[in-house]
Design brief:
The protein is of the alpha+beta class. It is built from 3 helices and 6 strands. The longest helix is centred in the middle third of the chain and has 12 residues.
Amino acid sequence: MIHKIYSVFDSKSESYTPPFFQHTEAMAIRTFADACNDKEHTFGMHPDDYTLFDLGTWDDSTGTITQDKIVSIGNGLIYQEQK
């Protein structure tokens, strides 16, 4: 099965979080949006510092990681209040 790979870029630390896997972009957005709307989560406290990125795909049957280009899916501010 193909899994999409995502990470969140922190503009203050100028680094990416460890990657996470989801089956669809919508699922990754939901996870990110939930964190951006949680005032006790770092993303929710400073949503403008964080941006979600699509890093590529991982095939769990072959172990192959494929990356064409890193694609921004949006800054945390645009996902606040969206549930």
